[in-house]
Structure formats: structure tokens, C-alpha cells
Specification:
Largest sheet: none
Shape: globular
Number of helices: 18
Distance between the termini: 28 Å
Radius of gyration: 21 Å
Number of strands: 0
């Protein structure tokens, strides 16, 4: 069992390393080739894409994995897959139209979006496409097809580098093309490939699904997903909302430095994404019902704690040295912002892995309420305190860490009652 888990983790981790490094490469080169004001806007567009994708996801991907794992009949699994695929394609079509008026509103509210070479509408569309791409990855994850998961992730990573290199070589670098090379052009090709592959599957052809069945399976997923959705949106806004506050109340430099820090912090999502990709289905199957089950789970995670923190410390030092060498003088202050975020993020990720047991006991509402409260506290402090990049960075890290600790306490208390 341990060998299987290590093999799974290695494949997912290596593909995620390639994926994160390709995005990291494009983002870091962008720091060099874009002006401060351009990079500030570019980082805002990235935040808008991630927020859009998370909202459209509505927690259905996590809910899909949970229900797919719980269902025993092949027919139910296939129909569940058809339901989430149909829903997301229809959602994308609707958003293509709806994003037109929404983009106009965003441009009026945030002047920094009105920069040459950028497009709010295109960024919103990228968010919708990114959501559809993630759905295909979650389908592979739910089926336990880790080789396929790793393969399509690696192909996507290579595609990003190819598109970016072509734009750079032919001197076609714009904010839209930078965004498109990460979140649009590779997805279009890969999603068409995945769509043909999924629809061509024999089991997929065998089981037909009616509209009322789609509504039934969608209802099942939404019932659990509503809390996951609320939690995910609130959690993302905790880190991204400070950037929008800076865009309205501070300078381009502060927005850019916050964006640079987020770029380098993304390295730590390697651990988070890889661990959660493996652990989430496993935790669901572990069926943690009481404090004894959780104690065994926490001991399993804790056995790797020392190695985890040693690796993260090396990463923090290495990235800090890289920033000191690579970044221009105007971005030097972002190293201090990075250190604030990185130290907090390492602890947050570790506690967050322990808190994945929330999905095993089927109480995503605890996580959702905790994240909403965290967001409200962050927004309150952002309104009350000075809008400097240092202050908002500390607010984000402190409130996030405090909320993760509190969530763990609530989880343990709930399990002790059972």
C-alpha cells in the first residue's frame, strides 16, 4: 500500500512540478519584460482568472470525486461523469455571452484593468476554460488514472512553454498573449483531445442518460458542493482580495510587488496540489468516523513532518537567493513580502492536509463557515488598516493561519463527539 501511494505521489508530483515550473517560468520572465504598471495589471488579470474559475467550479469537482468514489455501480459512475461534463459545457456557452456586460462593469470599477494589451473579457473567458480543463483532470483523478493525469498535465505544461516561446520569438508579447499561453491556447487543444477520448470510451457510449437523470445527479453533487464552493471561493479571495484593494488605494508598484510575491509563493502549491490530489480520494475511502481514526491519519501525516519542513526551508532559502539575484532593484522589497507569505504558507499547507479529514466526515460546512469568517476578518482589516503591501501581506498570512488552526480545533472537537 505504501509503495502504491509513493508511486502515485511521484507521478503526480513530477507532473505538477513540470506544470508549476512552466507557469513559474512564464511569470518570472514576465517580470523582466513587462513594466511595473503592466505587471501590476497582468497579476490582477491572473487573479481574476483564478477567481472566475473557482466561482464557476462551484465545488462540483470535489463533490464529483466524493460521489464517484461512493458509487459502486459502473452505470452510476458513467452517468455522474456525463452529468458534470454536460453541465460544464453548457455553463461555458452561457458565460461566453454573460461575460460581455460583466467585463464592462469590471473595467469601470478597477481602472488598472484599462491597460493596453489586456482584456477583462478574455481573462474571464480564460477562467471559464480553465474551469472546464480542471474538470477533465478531476475525472482522471476520480477514476484513479494517475498515469493519464500525469501525462495530460505534462503535455499541458510543455504546451505553455511552446506558446510563450513562439510569442516571445516573434515579438508578439502582450498581456493577453501571456495570459493565453498559460490559461487558454493549450487548454483548447487538450480539451478537444480529452472530449474525443471520453466520448469515444465504450462504457461512455453504453450508458445513455436522460435529462431528468442529469438533474438528479446534479442535485446530488450540488447538495455537497454548495459548501465546498463557498469554502473555495472564500479561501481564494482571502489571498487575492488584498491585491484588488491595493489596485484601488495604493500604487502600481505595490500591486506588482504583491503579484511578484504570489508568483514565487506558487512554488509551495506543488506540495499542496500533489498531496491533495492523492490524499483527497484516500481520505474519503478511509471513512474517518471518530477521533481514533483521525489520530491514525494524523500520525501517518506527522511521520513525514520533519522531511516536509526541511524541504520547505530549503525552498524558502533557495527562492529568496534567486529573487535577490534575478529581480531588479524596484522589486527587491518583494523578497521580504515573500518571506512573510512563505513561512505562513508552509505551516498553513501542513495543517490544511490534516484538515482534509473534513471531507471524510462529510461536513464541508465547517470548512466553508471558517473560510467565510476568515474572509470577513481580512476584508475588515483591509478597510481599517493602511493599504500598504506589507500590511495587507501580513493580514492575509495571519488570518489564514489563525483560521486553519481554528478549523483543526473544530474538526477534532466534532470527531470527539462521535
Amino acid at each position: 500500500m505504501k509503495r502504491i501511494s509513493v508511486n502515485k505521489f511521484s507521478k503526480i508530483f513530477l507532473s505538477n512540478v513540470f506544470n508549476q515550473l512552466s507557469t513559474f517560468f512564464i511569470m518570472t520572465i514576465s517580470i523582466k519584460i513587462l513594466s511595473v504598471s503592466q505587471y501590476a495589471s497582468f497579476s490582477l488579470y491572473i487573479s481574476l482568472i483564478l477567481i472566475t474559475s473557482t466561482i464557476l467550479n462551484s465545488g462540483l469537482n470535489v463533490s464529483f470525486i466524493k460521489k464517484y468514489t461512493e458509487f459502486k455501480r459502473v452505470e452510476d459512475k458513467i452517468k455522474l461523469e456525463k452529468t458534470i461534463l454536460t453541465f460544464n459545457i453548457i455553463l461555458l456557452i452561457i458565460m461566453i455571452i454573460l461575460f460581455l456586460p460583466v467585463s464592462i462593469i469590471f473595467k469601470e470599477l478597477i481602472p488598472m484593468f484599462n491597460i493596453e494589451g489586456g482584456s477583462v473579457y478574455f481573462s474571464l473567458l480564460c477562467g471559464a476554460v480553465f474551469n472546464l480543463w480542471n474538470m477533465f483532470r478531476y475525472i482522471e483523478q476520480a477514476k484513479g488514472k494517475y498515469e493519464s493525469f500525469a501525462l495530460i498535465t505534462s503535455i499541458y505544461s510543455l504546451s505553455k512553454i511552446i506558446f510563450f516561446s513562439l510569442f516571445w520569438w516573434y515579438d508578439l508579447i502582450t498581456i493577453n498573449n501571456l495570459i493565453g499561453s498559460i490559461y487558454f491556447y493549450p487548454f483548447i487543444i487538450l480539451m478537444l483531445f480529452n472530449l474525443v477520448r471520453v466520448i469515444g470510451d465504450n462504457d461512455y457510449k453504453k450508458y445513455k442518460i436522460k435529462i431528468r437523470e442529469i438533474l438528479y445527479f446534479l442535485k446530488i453533487m450540488v447538495k455537497y458542493a454548495r459548501w465546498v464552493s463557498l469554502s473555495n471561493v472564500a479561501f481564494l479571495l482571502i489571498s487575492r482580495s488584498p491585491q484588488f484593494f491595493l489596485a484601488n488605494y495604493s500604487s502600481d508598484k505595490d500591486v506588482a510587488m504583491y503579484g511578484v510575491a504570489l508568483t514565487f509563493i506558487s512554488v509551495f502549491s506543488l506540495f499542496n496540489n500533489s498531496l491533495r490530489t492523492i490524499i483527497l480520494p484516500e481520505v474519503t475511502l478511509m471513512n474517518i468516523k471518530n477521533i481514533s481514526d483521525y489520530t491514525r491519519f494524523s500520525k501517518l501525516i506527522s511521520s513525514k513532518k520533519k522531511l516536509y519542513f526541511i524541504i520547505c526551508t530549503v525552498f524558502i532559502l533557495g527562492i529568496s537567493i534567486f529573487q535577490a539575484i534575478f529581480l531588479e532593484n524596484i522589486y527587491v522589497d518583494s523578497i521580504f513580502i515573500f518571506l512573510i507569505m512563505a513561512i505562513g504558507q508552509v505551516i498553513i499547507i501542513y495543517i490544511g492536509i490534516l484538515n482534509t479529514a473534513i471531507h471524510s466526515i462529510g461536513l464541508p460546512n465547517i470548512d466553508a463557515i471558517n473560510n467565510v469568517l476568515r474572509l470577513l476578518f481580512v476584508l475588515t482589516f483591509l478597510i481599517m488598516l493602511p493599504k500598504s503591501v506589507y500590511v495587507v501581506s501580513f493580514i492575509y498570512v495571519f488570518i489564514t493561519l489563525l483560521g486553519e488552526v481554528q478549523l483543526n480545533r473544530l474538526l477534532i472537537r466534532e470527531l470527539k463527539r462521535r
